[in-house]
Structures are given as structure tokens and as C-alpha cells.
Design brief:
CATH class: Alpha Beta
Strand content: 15-25%
Distance between the termini: 17 Å
Number of helices: 5
Structural class: alpha/beta
Helix content: 40-55%
CATH architecture: 3-Layer(aba) Sandwich
Mean pLDDT: 93
Number of domains: 1
């Protein structure tokens, strides 16, 4: 049996986008991928991210917000940054075989407006992340 590919999702605070990507890849590609996520900092799991993921049947409520682990970073098959800040400030990856990609998504935690408008931004980002994860799994990267 082929071993699972390790995918490491990185964001600034590991509170929203990387957590969503982690949850979707675990739900959609569990048989092919080992999934981890982290941030340049640990901002805590955003409750709105948990809520919008629950709306689509993915429970990330037990996830924790972690800081990038250099060992995991260099053991990963794929390192995928989900925001420009993480892409620009990602620690150097010493392992030349790690594939690093950048999938940029807006930060829903920075949304302003009414609660409904903020939640709509979270749903918009969630749906964009899900679509990108579905493509990743379908293409069998």
C-alpha cells in the first residue's frame, strides 16, 4: 500500500483558512493524505470558521491553532500557503523535494459589516477553499 502524502497548510494565524483547508482535505482525501495545518503565529480557532464548516458537515471544533513546526515543514510532501503573508514569510524549507504552492484566499476574519455580512464572507472563503481542495484531490496531486 502506498503511503499517504503529507500536506501542510500554512496561514498567518492558523485560525480560519488553513483550518478550513485542513478540515476539507481530511474529509475529502483522508485515504490519500495526512493533513496538518499551522500558522506563523497561533491565533486560536475562529468560532465563525467552526460554524461555517459545521454548516457543510465538516467538524473542525476539535482542531487547535498551532505554530509552524520546522520538522513537519521539511517532512511534508506539499506545503501550501493560503495567504500572502504566510507565503512571503514562510520559513525556509530545507528539503528540496517538498512541493510548495500558494493558494491565496481573502482573510474572512478581517471582514467588516453586520454579522450577516461577516458570516457571508466566511461562507464565500469556505466555498472557495472547498473548490480548491476538491480540485487537488481530483487531480491526485
Amino acid at each position: 500500500m502506498e503511503s499517504k502524502k503529507l500536506v501542510y497548510f500554512l496561514c498567518t494565524g492558523n485560525s480560519c483558512r488553513s483550518q478550513m483547508a485542513d478540515g476539507f482535505l481530511q474529509a475529502l482525501g483522508r485515504e490519500k493524505y495526512l493533513v496538518k495545518s499551522a500558522g506563523l503565529e497561533a491565533h486560536g480557532l475562529n468560532p465563525r470558521a467552526v460554524q461555517v464548516m459545521q454548516e457543510v458537515g465538516v467538524d473542525i471544533s476539535s482542531h487547535t491553532s498551532e505554530v509552524i513546526d520546522p520538522t513537519i515543514l521539511n517532512q511534508a510532501d506539499y506545503v501550501i500557503t493560503l495567504c500572502g503573508h504566510a507565503d512571503e514569510h514562510c520559513p525556509v524549507i530545507a528539503n528540496k523535494y517538498v512541493v510548495k504552492w500558494h493558494w491565496g484566499f481573502d482573510d474572512p476574519a478581517k471582514a467588516i459589516g453586520t454579522e450577516d455580512e461577516i458570516m457571508e464572507k466566511f461562507r464565500e472563503v469556505r466555498d472557495a477553499v472547498k473548490a480548491r481542495i476538491e480540485t487537488f484531490v481530483r487531480e491526485g496531486k
